[in-house]
């Protein structure tokens, strides 16, 4: 394959796997050779050790990533005659049958397809995995702290009971915020058994700019969308002759800018391709965009998180980002998509849209978007990423896994289920009492029922759920309507008032007129049109902002340093924000009176600010607005608020006392089946933080 040397992380990984019995975590930048670092020693082990069944299981978060890694591994394994298989919904039945008949080599799979094996092929699991030597988990950071990761951990724990050998785990990631949390996720009982290999050597050159476009204040100007056209022209100017990715924070924005740049490029007579890639588009559209990016022709793809993962797209020269992403981890992933060759820099242009006028609102005058973009950039340059939440309850995933084990075994005792899921499995912070509450809720919802012999079996509704292919995923897929032009499937949209016959939409970067809607078939028929507007897609949940980001934003306000990567508009906005902060004395006074209201600047992260807002409402019946790093409290004086905060600090409210006053948040596929109390408890561990809030109050009250 014309390799002349191995990279340092590959050498270190080979030593770790071949000379020890430990597990391995490889944390290195995109295109650092992590896949080969894992598989070179693993494949050597395969050739030396005879094994019956699948030797190595590679778990990836996306089918597209599975397909991409399949191509790479197939090429790597071809000369050694090592079988490489893949398993997901698009793989032919003949290929799956070949694996089932003669399991061997390496199997690439998603967590959802592992779940389907437990449901549909439970009798063949031992034949497949009884001598499973290695599990490689790619994009590990994407699984830590969320339901999908808990789902995967549960599936791997269940597989371990089938194996007759000790399975070793290998995690791969470009953006691990806390290596210790990652090690505990991989091996909860023995985190010290995980060896870490990280990137060394010279840091990669980064070329980077944050540029702001001005959004008009008048409604007449706003309707012209001139600021969006200015940004589209900028993108054509800067990226038109390159192969590049432009990330957006929503599918609607991706559609809008694909449409605008295509039209601008056509008007200029450019030959560059402007394409689109997101999760609501047809497989054919996404694959067309991926192939175009790999071609020799300059191609610019507007995309969302679907191209954030490490799919090989050839030589991406530059990356754009419209709007501030919600995490430093995401920013690092996206920056790392460019300059994959050793001698090329990573290049990113981050575009913000700001209003000229702030309507005399202090928080708006602080330019939160500009501050957050700078703070995240500084943290990125200091190689910091968010550590994931490590202790949520994950009751949504627990319901699904309870149903899955009952189906696999035909029935189970409650104690056996708890042992499999909480004692041997990953749901360690769910005791038997809490699990009993969950089972009773599931029974009331007809998901399960209990026999005279105390055996838990699937209930009427549970049977229907488990028999559906949608059961395999722990996350909820929004109900969308298929959009077709004749017999051609274009993509899917969330049905709303905009998509009515005679209206116009933009989808797959093209304009369409809606001509018919079939409610039963959940299908929208369209035809090409000269007019169009981006459709409304189901909104995706944004992550919380970490306290470190808010703290860095506050530090930037109090500094006089002006980063060199800011354009003139951003420099002006930063100056305005600092002037407003100095005038209000925010640096020394976190509680500021504003008319009849009081502003409490927390700078403590989304979860603490949200928790304190809820406490002030619950305990003192105050009107509070959560502005992210600030709480606006109505009709209260500064001294009165301070008295409330001191009272609050002395109350030491417990989780059990706090939860009954929370709103019911059903942020999961199976949570609506649970009691309101369980949904509130699950929401607490995901969205709130009493311990962090009391730490913040200690610090605040010392300063005031």
What does this structure look like?
- With 704 residues, this protein is α/β, with parallel strands linked by helices.
- It folds into five domains: 8-198, 3-Layer(aba) Sandwich (Rossmann fold); 206-381, P-loop containing nucleotide triphosphate hydrolases (Rossmann fold, 3-Layer(aba) Sandwich); 395-472, Arc Repressor Mutant, subunit A, CATH 1.10.10.10; 480-528, no CATH class; 589-703.
- It is built from 26 helices and 24 strands.
- The chain has a seven-stranded parallel sheet with strand order 3-4-2-5-6-1-7, with helices on both faces. A six-stranded parallel sheet has the order 8-13-12-9-11-10, sandwiched between helices.
- A hairpin with a 2-residue loop joins β16 and β17 (488-494).
- It is globular, with a radius of gyration of 27 Å.
- Residues 219-223 have low confidence and may be disordered.
Topology:
Layout: H1 8-19, E1 23-27, H2 34-48, E2 56-59, H3 63-77, E3 84-87, H4 93-101, E4 106-109, H5 111-120, H6 125-129, E5 134-137, H7 147-160, E6 168-173, H8 179-186, E7 194-198, E8 206-215, H9 219-224, H10 226-239, E9 244-248, H11 251-268, E10 273-277, H12 283-294, E11 299-303, E12 318-322, H13 328-335, E13 346-355, H14 362-365, H15 368-381, H16 395-409, H17 414-423, H18 432-444, E14 448-450, E15 456-458, H19 460-467, E16 480-485, E17 488-494, E18 504-507, E19 510-518, E20 523-528, H20 547-558, H21 568-584, E21 591-594, E22 597-601, H22 606-620, E23 624-626, E24 630-633, H23 638-651, H24 655-658, H25 676-687, H26 690-703
Parallel strand pairs: 1-6, 1-7, 2-4, 2-5, 3-4, 5-6, 8-13, 9-11, 9-12, 10-11, 12-13, 16-20
Antiparallel strand pairs: 14-15, 16-17, 18-19, 19-20, 21-22, 22-24, 23-24
